[in-house]
Amino acid sequence: MNPLSSADTTDETAEAPADEAVETVEVDERRQAVVDQFTELLGDAVVQSHIRPGDDVWIRVTRDAWATTADVARNRLGFTFFDFLSAMDWLPSPFGRDMDAQEDTSGAVAVDDADASPGEADADAGPVALETGYAGGDTRFQLLARVYDVRNHIGVTFRADLPDDDLAAPTWSTTYLGADWHEREVREMFGINFIGHPHMVNLYLPGEFEGYPLRKDFPLLARRVKPWPGIVDVEQMPTDGDEDAGDLRCRRRCRRQ
Amino acid sequence: MAKLDGEQVVRCEPIPGYMHRGYEKLCEVRTYPQVTTLVNRIDWLGSFANEVPFILAAEKLMDVEAPPRAQVIRTILFELSRLGNISLFLGDLGIQLGGLTIGFYAFRDREFVLNQIESATGGRFHPNFDRIGGIKDDLPKGWIAETKRAMDRIRRLCDEFEELVLGNEIFAARTRGVGVIPSDVALSYGMSGANLRATGVDWDLRRDACPPGLSYDLADWKVWTHPDGDSYARTWVRLQEVRESTHIVDQLLDSIPSGPIMAKVPRIIKVPAGEAYVATENPLGEMGYYVVSKGDLVPFRVKIRSASFNNISVVPWVSRGVIIPDLITIMASLYFILGDIDR
Amino acid sequence: MGLVESGKMPKPLTTLLSLSRKYSLWVYQWGLACCAIEMGSAFASPRYDVMRLGVIPFPASPRQADLVVISGTVTDKMAPAVKRLYDQMPDPKYVISMGSCANCGGPYWDSYSVTKGVDQIIPVDVYVPGCPPRPEALLEGIILLQERIGTEDMSKRWRGEPIVVS
């Protein structure tokens, strides 16, 4: 699996590997101009950016500049259309195959298999290496928001790192009115608080609901009770050469019987 | 939940969540082909339209493109689901405002569209027909002529609606000037689709930002806008949208190219690592999927941007100071689908 | 009416009562999700026309209904409302669970917010499978329910015993 790396960064001059350099020969001037405008107006607050030519642009800002970013985007640069606001949890799933990973992590841990594939053993032990997406990131939680310019037909996706010990960010709902509900949703799904939000109550879930469902460490209990039948149908291609997965599956099936 | 002063609404706050099924979490535990089964059911009136942006996002990440024939058929089905959806809106609006007749008409003529969707895909409601790299099957024999007849029926329904409802004095009195939303507020709330076009913003994702994989460029059609931003404008724009949509279908039916319907994709779909946001102009407005993949069988994260969620979040703003009967008009004309709000 | 209350009624009277209840079902539409549209097609569209089966789909409130069709996904947030609706209906009352979601959770079987089957909250008489079931399937379910009402022993119902369709 290739790490998600930022193809062209504005703030640092790290040399990209040769194959990536070939891919980024194509330059998207419109989107580069957008990045330049934001860098000019926000200054150091723009941490990193990523452009996929002809498609999309990602800009990572600091958390302190989160509200300023919205203000600049809407009132200075004409990104008037509010698309969505959400968050990301970059923690790799701690549950394994009955949740969303391909490998049978939880099963392997339960029977104390020493030969579980490498990388899983230290999932419980040390801090997990986070693999974040375009425009990088250092923390487990990231805010994600997208705005659009309906005149020039160009959209920008913003993200901002949130430190684990202080999951809070300034609200966007004063700038983009539609962010109101989106922030309420993010609050109950990820447990991220928004400072200055006028009416922070649950949107979807009943008040007594415990936990934050979209965090990666939130288990789907029904899957605990009854293993998912779906993934067994997915057989490995012979060319995949992934014999471990087949072994695990056999073992799991045997254990169940 | 509405706080009233006599018959006047002081503050009205919709309470969603009664239909919250946790899509974004469930998408994280299903493989890519399985997700389409699930997302069919977000906006249940225009089911096929829900699959398409997700499939397009996956195609973008995999760098696959469907063959031209598949693209055209996909676009036709996309528009048929729009017709199935909005024709029910036309009926529902009548029912909400007390004119039952048009409701029966809409149910009657909608069946013709559903029949076409069913005979092509096998599913009346939830086709689950779109695949990464193409579509599942080719069209059945005689489908094109049948569909053209269905389009005629829908156009006739539009005429009936125009005479029966739009030309009705009572309807005009109940909708004109009710629930006016200016364009800057609509944009700020992220309203999209006909609701946005009814405020005068000339923006249609099909025309302006059509993602690769749909072939709207083969048809000649018009995006209608209305300057008023009230309930009447929203209804009117939707009516024109239905008409244009039938014309798109008619033109595309005549221009289906021959060729394969599936591109070459591996049997086990593993999507390479990356992120993509693809949005299409769904019946209710902009629907987009922000898909984050880590190269696995399942998506790492799917953020579903559904149209009704943003469209309905404007209700607290627009309902201040209106009277209760107007609230019904506003809600009906904003047109939401519960599953699309709550996901 | 003492006889009726104790359930010991003469057979002809039972037959007559069952027959009349069978063909004047007032059905309350409790549409929750996709199935609500198919239920709407079955009940309100001229093509399927449910009234020919002696079913009247327009009671103003559950207090006037004999039958409720729970169509669609019941979420944990909605569950108390479903229970209250059922409690408000007068006896004898029947429930049709329409669609996979109401039957067992359907495609949301592993969701954190969906009730896995409406029968966890209220007793169900007829399950209509499908996702969503076609309108014809719902009509078939209603006919099955009518059969059941026709052969029902009222005294058993009064005693709360399960009824088996013969």
Secondary-structure element series of chain B: EEHHHHHEEHHHHHHEEEHHHH
Molecular shape of chain B: globular
Unreliable sequence segments of chain A? 1-24, 100-127, 240-257
Mean pLDDT of chain A: 69
Question: Which word captures the global form of chain A?
Answer: globular
| CATH architectural type of chain B | Orthogonal Bundle
Radius of gyration of chain A: 21 Å
**Mind summarizing the main beta sheet of chain B?**
3 strands, antiparallel
Low-confidence stretches of chain B: none
* Count of structural domains of chain B: 1
The largest sheet of chain A is: 5 strands, mixed
Q: Structural class from helices and strands of chain A?
A: alpha/beta
Q: CATH superfamily of chain B, called what?
A: Cytochrome-c3 Hydrogenase, chain B
Oligomer: heterotrimer
The CATH topology of chain B turns out to be Cytochrome-c3 Hydrogenase, chain B
The structure class of chain B reads: mainly alpha
Q: Quick one: CATH class of chain B? A: Mainly Alpha
CA radius of gyration of chain B is 20 Å
Q: What's the average pLDDT of chain B?
A: 85
What can be said about this structure in brief?
Chain A is of the alpha/beta class. Chain A contains 9 helices and 7 strands.
Topology:
The complex is a heterotrimer of chains A (257), B (343) and C (166).
Chain A: H1 18-23, H2 29-42, E1 46-52, E2 56-61, H3 66-76, E3 81-89, H4 105-110, H5 121-125, E4 141-149, E5 154-162, E6 168-170, H6 179-190, E7 193-195, H7 221-225, H8 230-233, H9 243-256
Parallel strand pairs in A: 2-5, 6-7
Antiparallel strand pairs in A: 1-2, 3-4, 4-5
Chain B: E1 2-5, E2 8-12, H1 23-27, H2 32-39, H3 47-62, H4 68-96, H5 100-121, E3 130-131, E4 134-135, H6 143-166, H7 169-175, H8 183-189, H9 194-197, H10 205-208, H11 231-254, E5 274-282, E6 285-293, E7 301-305, H12 307-312, H13 315-318, H14 324-334, H15 338-342
Helix pairs in contact in B: 2-3, 3-4, 4-5, 4-6, 4-11, 4-14, 5-6, 6-11, 11-14
Chain C: H1 2-6, H2 11-22, E1 25-31, H3 34-44, E2 55-56, E3 67-71, H4 79-88, E4 94-98, H5 99-104, E5 126-128, H6 135-150, H7 154-159
Parallel strand pairs in C: 1-2, 1-3, 3-4, 4-5
Helix pairs in contact in C: 2-6, 3-6
Written account of the structure:
The complex is a heterotrimer of chains A (257), B (343) and C (166). Chain A is of the alpha/beta class and 257 residues long. Chain A has helices spanning 18-23, 29-42, 66-76, 105-110, 121-125, 179-190, 221-225, 230-233, 243-256; strands spanning 46-52, 56-61, 81-89, 141-149, 154-162, 168-170, 193-195. Chain A has a domain at 29-90 and 130-226: Beta Polymerase, domain 2, CATH 3.30.460.80. In chain A, 30% of the residues lie in helices and 18% in strands. In chain A, the strands form two sheets. Chain A has a five-stranded mixed β-sheet. In chain A, helix 6 (179-190) links the parallel strand 6 and strand 7 (193-195). The model of chain A is unreliable at 1-24, 100-127 and 240-257 (pLDDT under 50). In chain B, a hairpin with a 2-residue loop joins strand 3 (130-131) and strand 4 (134-135). Chain B is mainly α. The radius of gyration of chain B is 20 Å and the shape is globular. Chain B has one domain: Orthogonal Bundle (Cytochrome-c3 Hydrogenase, chain B), CATH 1.10.645.10. The model of chain B has no long low-confidence stretch (mean pLDDT 85). A five-stranded parallel β-sheet of chain C has the order 2-1-3-4-5. The longest helix of chain C is centred in the C-terminal third of the chain and has 16 residues, at 135-150. The mean pLDDT of chain C is 80. Classes of the chains: A alpha/beta (257), B mainly alpha (343), C alpha/beta (166). The B-C interface holds B 17-22, 25-26, 29, 37-38, 41, 44-45, 88, 103-104, 107-108, 111, 124-126, 338-339 and C 32-34, 37-38, 40-41, 44-47, 72-73, 75, 77-78, 81, 107-108, 110-114, 131-132, 134.
